[in-house]
Design a protein that fits this description.
Length: 499
């Protein structure tokens, strides 16, 4: 679960104010909690890849739960404070393998070793409302940075961690602490403060700010960095079995492949082909898990009345999903995957470009979008009410690639940014309709395959037939919905330019 806390820095002369008497706060009682003496050893690579990415891995003693390894993972790039913290049993001599795996996307082939040692005196208070409801835990940490037995630095900070209070309730408490002399502090891990400026440097993958006047290669780096960051960000959630993590990681592989196709004239072809091949390998593994997730969710949410009769289908899908996940997990601990990550990180920094990438982005990238648009326009118009499923699927792929191209190129075409944004929205609508159509088709095939195995079970065969009929109705409805979203997209394409 995501964790929320607020931090403040304090000086040596700070005195804790009487929070239960402060005007405007919801605090009615303040209860002392046992003081803790904590010792932490933080682990990182030589170049501090974890710290620079907002990841902390430490072995800590002194907690009420006993010694353990603790891993803090960052939240999404737009909400870094929504981090999550995980604990692992084990002794100080060796990092638990589960923790190593969860930091693989950031550490990659970097060797993890002790990087900082801290000693912390922690004072704690439980803050409660008048009705006794717990609001938050307030922590004051007096931290010493150690080099062996020698103290080489000190700092103090407050941390207010919600135990039920929302941000609106926490803010008056924060204001009271600030009036007493505490100052606003960015949510910087203690390890970063201990390690110094190198730990606060940029992470390995940074999206450059869009600049239409920059060389077109800047747009390539922007797109590759965006996709690589997304893939790395969802590596850990995927390993933890989260459905959304698998989905977003698959999207990242697709987007990266699509962006490489979009910027094809600007990128060295043999170099790009090697990356695309490896992305396809990873995307297929992720897709096998994602497809089963979609099918299981469909059965669970839309066909409750058939749930018992379709238990064989649910069981078959769950078994297939488990097998696909096992294959994916094996791949994620392989050298092949680590090699791909290293190639993507390098590609986001310094892609191998052609001479055309030296021209101004504003002069080059509109033509790249037009090329994708023309290709997609043809696919959209190819679809007729009685077209085969493959034609619908090709139109979906075209809409998806157009959306990715618009989102990658839009920031570099200032004069048409609004139109390109609307184009991306229209392409997404087509992608959603045809994506649902494809999901229903794949599910129908899964039903038929399961019926072949359990054809002697009359109750299952009857329920499966009814379910397949529902899927067929769903497909017809989606085919009927397609012309409207297609026409909207074609109008946006016409406004952007072209026939």
């Amino acid at each position: 679960m995501a964790d929320r806390d607020l931090k403040l820095a304090i000086g040596d002369t700070f005195v804790m104010p009487p929070l239960s008497e402060a005007e405007g706060t919801p605090v009615a009682t303040v209860t002392d909690l046992p003081e803790l003496e904590l010792g932490s050893i933080y682990h990182d690579t030589v170049d501090l890849r974890l710290a620079r990415s907002g990841v902390t891995l430490r072995y800590r003693i002194g907690d009420e739960g006993g010694p353990c390894w603790s891993l803090k993972l960052p939240g999404p790039v737009n909400e870094p404070e929504d981090h999550r913290e995980l604990s692992f049993p084990g002794g100080p001599a060796e990092i638990p393998q589960a923790a190593r795996d969860l930091v693989s996307a950031w550490a990659r082939r970097g060797h993890l070793a002790p990087a900082a040692a801290l000693s912390t005196r922690r004072c704690r208070w439980l803050l409660a409302a008048a009705d006794g409801a717990e609001l938050a835990e307030l922590v004051q940490d007096d931290v010493s940075v150690l080099d062996g037995d020698r103290v080489i630095g000190r700092f103090r900070e407050l941390e207010l961690e919600s135990r039920g209070a929302d941000r609106d309730q926490l803010q008056p408490i924060m204001l009271t602490l600030q009036r007493a002399g505490a100052t606003h502090s960015e949510p910087v891990p203690k390890s970063v403060r201990a390690l110094g400026p190198r730990a606060a440097a940029a992470p390995d993958v940074v999206e450059p700010a869009p600049d239409p006047d920059a060389p077109a290669g800047h747009a390539v780096r922007y797109a590759l960095a965006n996709g690589t960051r997304r893939l790395m960000e969802h590596d850990a959630p995927t390993r933890m079995g989260e459905v959304e993590g698998v989905h977003q990681m698959r999207v990242a592989t697709r987007r990266l492949r699509g962006d490489i196709v979009t910027f094809e004239p600007l990128i060295d072809e043999p170099w790009a082909d090697g990356i695309v091949q490896e992305l396809r390998w990873l995307g297929d593994l992720l897709g096998a898990v994602r497809d089963r997730d979609v099918e299981l969710a469909s059965l669970a949410s839309e066909d409750v009345d058939l749930e018992r009769e379709l238990s064989q289908l649910q069981t078959a899908n769950a078994a297939s999903r488990d097998e696909a996940r096992e294959d994916l997990m094996y791949a994620l601990v392989s050298s092949r995957y680590l090699d791909l990550l290293e190639r993507l990180v390098q590609a986001a920094r310094e892609p191998l470009l052609t001479p055309a990438a030296a021209e101004a982005a504003s002069e080059v990238v509109p033509d790249l979008l037009a090329k994708t648009a023309n290709r997609t326009r043809g696919r959209l118009k190819d679809v007729q009410p009685d077209s085969p499923d493959r034609t619908y699927h090709q139109a979906r792929i075209g809409a998806k690639n157009l959306r990715y191209a618009a989102e990658a190129i839009g920031p570099f075409v200032a004069q048409h940014a609004g139109r390109i944004g609307k184009l991306a929205v229209a392409a997404t609508a087509v992608q959603d309709v045809l994506g649902a159509h494809q999901d229903a088709l794949v599910m129908q095939r899964r039903v038929r395959a399961t019926m072949d195995v359990h054809h002697k079970d009359a109750a299952f065969a009857f329920a499966a037939g009814r379910y397949s009929e529902r899927l067929e109705v769903r497909r017809r409805e989606l085919r009927e919905a397609y012309p409207e979203v297609r026409d909207t997209l074609l109008k946006q394409l016409k406004r952007l330019g072209g026939s």
